[in-house]
Amino acid sequence: MFCKSCGSALPTQIGSGRPRTFCSDECRITNFRKNLKEHGRNEWYSPQHVVDAARRVMGSIDLDPASCYHANQIVRATGYYTRADDGLSLPWRGRVWLNPPYDTFAPKFFVKFCEEYEAGRIPMACLLLGVHHLTTKWFQRIEGFAALVSLPAGRLKFTGRNAHGNEPMHGSAILGVGVNPDLFRREFGEIGIVLELQARQPAKLAAASSPLVLISNRA
Predict the structure, then answer these.
(1) DSSP sequence for 130-150
(2) CB pairs under 8 A, 24+ apart, for 48-56?
(3) Structural domains of the chain sorted by starting position, each given as residue range(s) with its CATH number in brackets
(4) Rounded CA gap, 33 and 105, in Å?
């Protein structure tokens, strides 16, 4: 085995843990930055197995509002918006898959999703976010409706414009809104632990328990 960045031989690994792909953190960061430069900073095409699980949960995908021709070969949404279309300015309808662009675009697409869902134009959706997004102020908008969150074990592998495997520097979270809870647990429980985010009730009716509940992945 050799380092994906510098090509030097990797030490023999003992045990059954995740195989090493870089000889040091410096090489891992160098490879990450190289991928950003070659494949585009915001273009991270959704992992096939995650999209397939979302499609089984929702039955079909009507719209991917942050996509392109190549990305839609994976998602296979009935309709999609490209960067030129500007999905933030267009209506969203039906069952939505959303893997928002990174940087400053992620919160804008998330807020747009919340607005369309609250307006009743989106019956259900699955969103692929960075796990660090769950601690942001803009994510708190979701407190008004129930959701399920799958936290995959390990970092997911994405692809870019040149279809090379690409691991982000952070973990991911798959959010299910308006979906059948049992279907979501069945499909995404195979990928990682599943948490339930309960809708916050008015203060006088709010339960004393924490809104985040661990759901067993086993029947």
Answers:
(1) EGGGGGSTGGGGGGGS-EEEE
(2) 48/74, 49/191, 50/128, 50/152, 50/156, 50/174, 50/191, 51/75, 51/76, 51/97, 53/174, 53/187, 53/188, 53/190, 53/191, 54/97, 54/126, 54/174, 54/176, 54/187, 55/97, 56/183, 56/187
(3) 25-215 (3.40.50)
(4) 19
pLDDT tens digits, 24-57: 877 765 655 555 444 444 467 888 999 999 999 9
CA 32 to chain centre: 18
Global pTM value: 0.71
Who contacts 146 (Cβ-Cβ below 8 Å, separation ≥6)? 177, 196, 197, 198, 199
User: How far is Cα of residue 106 from the mean position of the Cα atoms in its chain?
Assistant: 11
Q: What is the pLDDT of residues 48-95, one digit of tens each?
A: 999 999 999 999 999 999 999 999 999 999 999 998 999 999 999 999
